[in-house]
């Protein structure tokens, strides 16, 4: 267990790289070689990588005895993979099927649902952004210590804040922990928003090429 704790970041990045490699190989075997049964082997590998990452987070907490950036990041990756990540993967799978299908002009109800869901995501993200800013503005206005900390913030303090979430910009440790987790969630949501925007752009360009 000591080895997994000391090399947690390397093992996490390695498992995440294997996950994306398995996704790529899955698509190749499924659509180029038409080996559907063999392609499912890589899906099982992705699940094993997910369980391995959860184990790394558990080992890290066992040795440190406190919540860390490493643990929160892994939990967010797992949550994304089991919720939005699954949905995005299915949409990608469906998109490739449509590109390879001869009946490109036929739209199904599931396609319409995907379009509606994709169009609503930017609105939800901007609502999250406004709520995020408003709550933190209220906290900084309420917590004068936090206001002073914000004025004297330096880049050297950021690594310390990452390692010790309770020692943040507020005098209230609960505010610091909530803000810490929320910052990570927001950055994760921002990443999903950017990837979703890129995916939408690719799909729009592809549809224009198919149906000029």
TrEMBL record:
<feature type="transmembrane region" description="Helical">
    <location>
        <begin position="121"/>
        <end position="140"/>
    </location>
</feature>
<feature type="transmembrane region" description="Helical">
    <location>
        <begin position="69"/>
        <end position="89"/>
    </location>
</feature>
<keyword id="KW-0812">Transmembrane</keyword>
<keyword id="KW-1133">Transmembrane helix</keyword>
<feature type="transmembrane region" description="Helical">
    <location>
        <begin position="180"/>
        <end position="199"/>
    </location>
</feature>
<feature type="transmembrane region" description="Helical">
    <location>
        <begin position="6"/>
        <end position="29"/>
    </location>
</feature>
<protein>
    <submittedName>
        <fullName>Integral membrane protein</fullName>
    </submittedName>
</protein>
<keyword id="KW-0472">Membrane</keyword>
<feature type="transmembrane region" description="Helical">
    <location>
        <begin position="41"/>
        <end position="63"/>
    </location>
</feature>
């Amino acid at each position: 267990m000591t080895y997994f704790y000391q090399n947690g970041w390397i093992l996490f990045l390695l498992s995440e790289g294997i996950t994306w490699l398995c996704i790529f190989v899955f698509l190749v075997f499924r659509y180029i070689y038409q080996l559907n049964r063999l392609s499912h082997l890589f899906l099982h590998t992705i699940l094993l990588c997910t369980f391995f990452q959860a184990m790394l987070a558990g080992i890290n907490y066992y040795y440190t005895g406190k919540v860390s950036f490493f643990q929160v990041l892994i939990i967010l990756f797992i949550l994304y993979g089991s919720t939005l990540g699954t949905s995005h993967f299915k949409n990608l799978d469906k998109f490739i099927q449509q590109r390879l299908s001869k009946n490109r002009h036929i739209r199904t109800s599931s396609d319409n649902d995907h379009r509606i869901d994709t169009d609503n995501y930017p609105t939800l993200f901007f609502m999250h952004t406004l709520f995020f800013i408003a709550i933190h503005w209220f906290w900084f206005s309420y917590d004068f210590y936090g206001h002073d900390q914000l004025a004297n913030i330096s880049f050297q303090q950021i690594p310390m804040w990452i390692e010790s979430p309770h020692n943040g910009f507020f005098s209230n440790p609960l505010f610091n922990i909530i803000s810490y987790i929320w910052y990570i969630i927001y950055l994760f949501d921002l990443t999903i928003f950017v990837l979703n925007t890129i995916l939408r752009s690719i799909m729009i360009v592809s549809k224009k090429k198919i149906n000029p």
